[in-house]
Amino acid sequence: MTEDIKNGWERERRIHFDEIVINYDEIRWEYPEELYNDIFNYSKIDKNNKKSIEIGAGTGKATKPFLDNGYDVTAIELSENMANFLQNKYYRNEKFKVIVSAFEDITLDNENYDLIYAASSFHWVDAEIGCPKVFNLLKNGGTFALFRNNFISDYNQKIYQEIQEFYRKYYHKPYKEPLKLNENEYWEPKGIYNGFRFNDLCDYGFNEIFMKSYNSIKVFSAEEYIKMLDTMSDHRSLPENNRTALYTGIKDIILKHGGFYEVKYFYQLYMGRKSNRVQKNVSYM
Predict the structure, then answer these.
(1) Phi-psi region of 216 (alpha: psi -120 to 50; beta: other; left: phi over 0)
(2) Are 191 and 181 in contact, with CB atoms under 8 Å apart?
(3) Spatial distance between the Cα atoms of 39 and 49, rounded to a whole number of angstroms
(4) Rounded to whole angstroms, how far apart are CA atoms 66 and 69?
(5) Is residue 249 one of the residues assigned to a domain?
(6) Domain at 270, CATH number
(7) Mind listing the pLDDT tens digit for each residue in 173-230?
(8) Is 114 a member of any domain?
(9) Range of the domain at 147
(10) pLDDT tens digits for range 221-272
(11) Number of continuous H segments (helices) and E segments (strands) in the chain
(12) Are strands 206-221 and 138-152 parallel, antiparallel or unpaired?
């Protein structure tokens, strides 16, 4: 294991989801309907020919709500297998197209889009390139919407405590322990950086900042939980022996506790507006 590997989320690893496209689409989380409604209400766009960009669209887990709301969606996806899956998934929709590229590398018309969004993907983008590019691509008044999910550690669960023993043995030795935050800390600079790889949308000229939290619970079978873990970049990047031992140990613990594992998720929605007005108000809900 080389010394430069710090946490398994290094940017060069962002294409290895190409190996697991079907499992990724089947097991990855959905986002709350309320979250999408908040984006549409914030965007204040009620017209035809609404244009959007989805950054790091993956298999399109967050694409359909925007198509259903009347947006033209240009999906930017670096991984070729993911992009092909996306194209096949939405090929009947004339408002949808895919560009195979890293977002940092695309060339599109500036001041041409009403909404640009990223669902659990902007941490793969170099924010020093990506945030100014988003600002330039948006029309005046356009919206930049970032959302993601986070696993909330439940220290009171015996099953959680037992699973951590395997992480200490097989995960933390190659990688440092991931930053564990409570719900309030996700809105502090360290939490925003942890999720999106920058500190503040205001630093890039966005204003009318909007932040909101959503909670959900999902119950996984032992097989489903291992399948979900294997769609996480840090887990997939573990040495094979570590990964196999970790998955086997976690699966055995879940089976010992009845075969199911209840997981709490915390969703973040973080939005800003491109506007000529100088305004730095923040709305948190």
Answers:
(1) beta
(2) yes
(3) 17
(4) 5
(5) no
(6) 3.40.50.150
(7) 888 888 888 888 999 999 999 999 999 999 999 999 999 999 999 999 999 999 999 9
(8) yes
(9) 11-153+180-216+265-284
(10) 999 999 999 999 899 989 999 999 999 999 999 999 999 999 999 999 999 9
(11) 10, 8
(12) unpaired
Identify whether 137 is part of a domain.
yes
- CB atoms under 10 Å from CB of 6, counted, come to 10
Residues 6+ apart with CB under 8 A from 83: 75, 77, 98, 100
Contacts of 76 (CB under 8 A, 6+ apart): 53, 54, 55, 56, 57, 98, 99, 101, 102, 103, 106
pLDDT tens for each residue of 149-182 = 999 888 889 999 999 999 999 998 888 888 888 8
The 10 Å Cβ neighbour count of residue 78 is: 21
Quickly tell me which residue has 């409570």 as its tokens: 182
Alpha helices in 115-178 (DSSP H): 127-137, 158-170
Average pLDDT, the chain: 91
Pairing relationship of beta strands 282-284 and 206-221 according to DSSP bridges: parallel
Question: Closest by alpha carbon to 211, among 148, 140, 161, 166?
Answer: 148
Read off the pTM.
0.93
E-state strands within the chain: 50-55, 71-77, 96-100, 113-119, 138-152, 206-221, 260-274, 282-284
